[in-house]
């Protein structure tokens, strides 16, 4: 108010400084100067009737209307007449404007000052009212005011705030439609999109996600909807589920990931023959080049090697493929990655030597089906071979996955997570086992065992004091120290009345009761009666091997077949498994060999004997070792040195604690000079005086040596 008074009075002092001709305009301004607003307004309105007075009369009416001590104070009216005055001023000829300036000291500056003041005051009034209607009125009525942009911003912000209070996709949609150029438009659009997605897919079903994609193909949450479809379509992470997903949702952006998952699950062993078989089984695999590259890498064996205190990798020719830069390196690559250590922490590299997973973990298992358990401090989590944190580091222990589920331990309780990292079964059990055939044993708070399915539902009641895994639809259970068998429905196949039960071999399981053994079939039927004597080694050796099982009666041993008939007479003190058609037998404290008919082929003359390996058997007399042929011929004479079994035509020889190699004729392949060696393959890793090398057995030469290894 004071600003307007000052401007008006200042103008009036200028206008009325000199002697002016009498007239309605002059009288009107005189009345205004003494705050006689009603008289001034009356005179200005009468003066309006003459077009030559339009500019000054309109200005006068505007000035009166802008006075807040005027009874009919109205800024809109003031602005209306000031605009008329402005139009009249610029429509007047230069001569009249000059006359106004000489007679009234009035020009466009006076008009602009009052107009600016009215605009500012009207803007302040709209901010006080703070309503959409008020801001819109100011924006439209005072369209030329410099505050219009601010009014637009304030109106838009108010409208956005109102939409936010409702916080629905429709409220944000209405805001966007009404104020498309607003500063808040982008934020409103973000909120609209996410609320639209969440609202229309609130039931989290395949149907709702599919309908959302069809109805809103431009939504930024299409990928999220597709991710949810992907997750729902592969609940157990089976190859068949992934393949069905690909066929049913070919446009889903996860199709490539599904293909990679199928490929990873199918080729978990990373063997060349597996990759070839995969290409045959899935000719529509879209990443043929990827598979071909993996095929080449699968056929290239990398070997860990050391220079000084640092590790790297070489190939079978001794070429350094990955430089020596790690504190430690694993002996193999799994899922294309090998674990390495730097700064006492573990990470993973690929065959290009790239660190795919940084060295930040205290413990790390090797990868299985693209996932591995890692540990920091006392907490475990799971990462993928793409370095994705699938399960946060919040568990005391995590097992490897089986049937798409892993056992987790938190605060001394056990539960299960899926391969997506979702806690499918809360940590509520005292003990829990890996899933096998869709079932896993769990121990309740009372210390009793039962079985849950993959959905976490208890399907076999906790009625046992111990339980094992299901294998081929059968699980071993125990009550009060006695063992029995149940099927996958929980029905009892064999009552818990046996002292022990072995795993099934040749569809038969060894059972022990009261010092006797027999065999039951998968139906729990006794196929071979409990008539043979029990011995711990009979149980440990696992029943049938090559169609025969060792049995004992009256301290004599022989073999029976799966029909329970005597295949090898029970006349030996001991008998070893058959190999190359022969079995070592102990008679009168001496070892010899019999054929599968029980006929002696090699007379019992040895103090010790081993099964045939690589068509030769290691025998011992008075502490000396040698090798015989299946005919009993001494191929490699007895000697004081320690000999190991032949593998691929080579046997380890140990002299004075040093390792070497001999061939099947007893010839020295490598002298006994090494402190250690492992393993005996085409390339053998050897050590001497703390230095390592790789020795090619076939070529009888070193393909690579650590600096300082003997020349």
Condensed summary:
By secondary structure, the protein is an alpha+beta fold.
Q: How much helix, percentage-wise, in residues?
A: 25-40%
Based on secondary structure, the structural category is alpha+beta
General shape: elongated
Continuous helix count:
18
Average per-residue pLDDT, rounded, comes to 92
Give the strand line-up of the largest sheet. Answer: 4-5-6-7
Low-confidence stretches: 1-22
Describe the structure.
Residues 1-22 have low confidence and may be disordered. The protein starts with a helix and ends in a 6-residue tail after the last strand. It is elongated, with a radius of gyration of 47 Å. The longest helix has 22 residues, at 108-129. Helix 1 (2-15) packs across helix 2, helix 2 runs antiparallel to helix 3 and helix 12 (206-215) runs antiparallel to helix 13. Strand 14 and strand 15 form a beta hairpin. The protein contains 18 helices and 47 strands. It is of the alpha+beta class and 711 residues long. The strands form 12 sheets. A 4-stranded antiparallel beta sheet has the order 4-5-6-7, with no helix packed on it. Among the domains are: 2-129; 641-711, Beta Barrel (Thrombin, subunit H), CATH 2.40.10.
Comma- or semicolon-separated keywords:
711 residues, 31% helix, Thrombin, subunit H, 47 strands, alpha+beta
Q: What is the strand and helix layout of this fold?
A:
Elements: H1 2-15, H2 24-33, H3 37-47, H4 54-65, H5 75-91, H6 94-104, H7 108-129, H8 132-141, H9 148-166, H10 169-178, H11 185-200, H12 206-215, H13 222-233, H14 239-248, H15 255-266, H16 272-281, H17 288-298, E1 303-307, E2 310-314, E3 320-326, E4 328-329, E5 338-342, E6 345-349, E7 355-361, E8 363-364, E9 371-376, E10 379-384, E11 389-395, E12 397-398, E13 405-410, E14 413-418, E15 423-429, E16 431-432, E17 439-443, E18 449-453, E19 458-464, E20 466-471, E21 474-479, E22 482-487, E23 492-498, E24 500-505, E25 508-513, E26 516-520, E27 526-533, H18 536-540, E28 544-545, E29 548-553, E30 556-561, E31 566-572, E32 574-575, E33 582-587, E34 590-595, E35 600-606, E36 608-609, E37 617-621, E38 624-628, E39 634-639, E40 642-643, E41 650-655, E42 658-663, E43 668-674, E44 676-678, E45 683-688, E46 691-696, E47 701-705
Antiparallel strand pairs: 1-2, 2-3, 4-5, 5-6, 6-7, 8-9, 9-10, 10-11, 12-13, 13-14, 14-15, 16-17, 17-18, 18-19, 20-21, 21-22, 22-23, 24-25, 25-26, 26-27, 28-29, 29-30, 30-31, 32-33, 33-34, 34-35, 36-37, 37-38, 38-39, 40-41, 41-42, 42-43, 44-45, 45-46, 46-47
């Amino acid at each position: 108010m004071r600003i307007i008074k000052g401007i008006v009075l200042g103008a009036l002092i200028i206008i009325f400084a000199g002697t002016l001709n009498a007239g309605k305009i002059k009288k009107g301004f005189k009345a205004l100067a003494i705050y006689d607003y009603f008289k001034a307004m009356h005179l200005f309105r009468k003066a309006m009737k003459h077009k030559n007075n339009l500019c000054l009369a309109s200005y006068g009416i505007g000035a009166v209307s802008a006075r807040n001590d005027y009874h009919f104070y109205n800024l809109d009216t003031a602005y209306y007449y000031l605009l008329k005055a402005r139009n009249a001023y610029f429509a007047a000829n230069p001569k009249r404007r000059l006359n106004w300036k000489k007679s009234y000291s009035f020009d466009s500056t006076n008009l602009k000052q009052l107009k600016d003041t009215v605009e500012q005051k009207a803007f302040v009034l709209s901010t006080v009212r703070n309503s959409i209607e008020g801001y819109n009125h100011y924006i439209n009525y005072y369209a030329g005011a410099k505050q219009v942009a601010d009014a637009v911003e304030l109106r838009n912000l108010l409208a956005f705030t109102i939409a936010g209070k409702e916080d629905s996709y429709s409220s944000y949609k209405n805001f966007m439609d009404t104020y498309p150029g607003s500063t808040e438009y982008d934020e409103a659009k973000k909120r609209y999109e996410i609320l639209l997605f969440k609202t229309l897919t609130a039931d989290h079903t395949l149907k709702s996600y599919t309908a959302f994609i069809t109805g809103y193909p431009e939504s930024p949450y299409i990928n999220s909807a597709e991710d949810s479809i992907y997750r729902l379509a592969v609940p157990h992470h089976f190859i068949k589920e992934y393949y069905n997903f690909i066929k049913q949702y070919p446009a889903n952006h996860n199709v490539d990931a599904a293909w990679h998952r199928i490929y990873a699950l199918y080729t978990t062993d990373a063997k060349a023959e597996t990759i070839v078989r995969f290409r045959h089984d899935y000719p529509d695999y879209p990443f043929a080049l990827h598979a071909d590259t993996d095929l080449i890498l699968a056929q290239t064996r990398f070997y860990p090697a050391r220079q000084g205190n640092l590790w790297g990798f070489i190939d079978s020719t001794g070429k350094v493929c990955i430089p020596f830069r790690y504190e430690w390196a694993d002996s193999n690559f799994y899922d294309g990655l090998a674990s390495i250590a730097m700064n006492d922490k573990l990470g993973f590299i690929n065959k290009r030597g790239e660190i795919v997973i940084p060295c930040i973990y205290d413990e790390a298992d090797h990868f299985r089906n693209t996932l591995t358990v890692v540990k920091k401090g006392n907490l475990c989590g799971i990462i993928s071979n793409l370095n994705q944190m699938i399960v946060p580091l919040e568990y005391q222990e995590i097992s490897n996955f089986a049937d798409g589920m892993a056992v987790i331990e938190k605060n001394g309780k056990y539960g299960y997570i899926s391969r997506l990292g979702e806690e499918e079964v809360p940590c509520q059990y005292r003990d829990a086992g890996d899933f096998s055939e869709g079932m896993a044993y769990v121990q309740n708070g009372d210390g009793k065992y039962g079985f849950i399915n993959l959905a976490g539902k208890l399907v076999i009641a906790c009625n046992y004091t111990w339980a094992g895994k299901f294998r081929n639809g059968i699980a071993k259970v125990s009550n009060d120290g006695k063992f029995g068998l149940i099927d996958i429905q929980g029905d009892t196949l064999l009552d818990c009345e046996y002292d022990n039960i072995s795993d099934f071999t040749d569809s038969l399981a060894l059972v022990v009761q009261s010092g006797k053994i027999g065999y039951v079939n998968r139906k729990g039927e006794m196929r071979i009666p409990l008539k043979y004597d029990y011995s711990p080694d009979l149980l440990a050796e696992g029943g049938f091997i090559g169609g025969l099982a060792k049995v004992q009666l009256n301290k004599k041993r022989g073999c029976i077949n799966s029909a329970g008939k005597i295949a090898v007479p029970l006349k030996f003190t001991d008998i070893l498994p058959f190999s190359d058609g022969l079995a070592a037998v102990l008679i009168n404290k001496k070892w010899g060999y019999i054929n599968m008919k029980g006929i002696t082929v090699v007379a019992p003359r040895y103090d010790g004997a081993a099964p045939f390996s690589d068509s030769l058997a290691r025998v011992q007399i008075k502490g000396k070792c040698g090798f015989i042929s299946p005919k009993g011929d001494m191929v490699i004479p007895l000697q004081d040195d320690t000999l190991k079994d032949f593998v691929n035509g080579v046997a380890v020889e140990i002299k004075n604690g040093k390792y070497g190699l001999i061939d099947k004729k007893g010839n020295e392949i490598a002298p006994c000079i090494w402190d250690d060696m492992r393993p005996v393959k085409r390339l053998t890793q050897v050590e001497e005086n703390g230095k390592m090398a790789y020795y090619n057995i076939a070529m009888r030469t070193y393909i690579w040596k650590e600096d300082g290894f003997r020349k």
